[in-house]
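Fold this: Isopentenyl-diphosphate delta-isomerase
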Amino acid sequence: MDKQHSHRKDEHVFLAEKFYQPQAQNGLADIRLLPTNLPEISKDEVSLTTTLAGKKISVPFFINAMSGGSLETAKLNAQLAEVAATTGIPMATGSQSIAIKYPELASTFSIVRQKIPQGIVIGNLGASHGLAAAQKAVTMLQADILEIHLNAAQELIMPEGDRSFYWEKNLQEIIKWLNVPVIVKEVGFGIRPTTFKQLKKLGVRYVDLSGRGGTNFAQIENQRRPAKDFALLNDFGLTTAETLLASQAYAADFSFTASGGIRTALDIVKCLILGADNVGISGLFLHTMIKKGVSGSIELIEQFKSQLRSLMTLLGCRTVADLRQVPYVLSVALENFRQQIQTKP
């Protein structure tokens, strides 16, 4: 077993919690929703049902990728999976690359399927891996969906990370031949609009935009560098709000997951209004699990469900699709960004 790799997994969890910010800088505060004064709706009419990678889910949010690959993160995966099973929401694991290389660590991931025998489980692998590894990752979890993450910035800052990034062939083969849907996922730096043109050519249909504002892997990996010489990238990339706005022109070709610094039910609603079909949450759920355990995490998720129904009632929306019609106003800075991004190739 690669003890250094396993230790890195533990470091990531420790540093993610160390740098956790209750008030995320995801740009969603720059979006103001206009109230509906005559909602003409009852809360019990609201449906939270939506889709994730083409699969029906009962609520529009899920536990996004976090952990696995060490004994400590195996415990965390088991706890998160218990929460997911109890609340009926999907769950993604962290990157399974270490378990592909060292099969004896597969149990740190497969515990998730053991705890969630019926619900949706999402595997996770980096884009440097090919089809054979993707198939192993799916088999390991009996996964319903596989996330393929794009993390060039993280790898370059990571002391032992990759320095070569030829990913398109892998993506194309995995999308074409894997027997489960694939979500192509950023890891907190957002997605440039022109990237969608490349992804469409590769056959990608599902994209996790993963904007800046939540868990910051530039900051985390820089903390692991002896000289800590990459703080210059701490603010690199597009915020969650920016990448949602930038993606709107490509909505006809993709189904979007929003993620990056989600802290409240209002954040979730804003993401859905801006075009996401669902929302992934990592840092908040990690923080809650560490501070309040399984019971506190379940309580938070159930609170989100109730608050989402209340917010949708307030906005006069019976379905997630209805939220797309809610009017909103952008801050001057965010509106300026929107206008500039529309003029760039």
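DSSP finds 13 helices and twelve strands in the chain. The mean pLDDT is 94.
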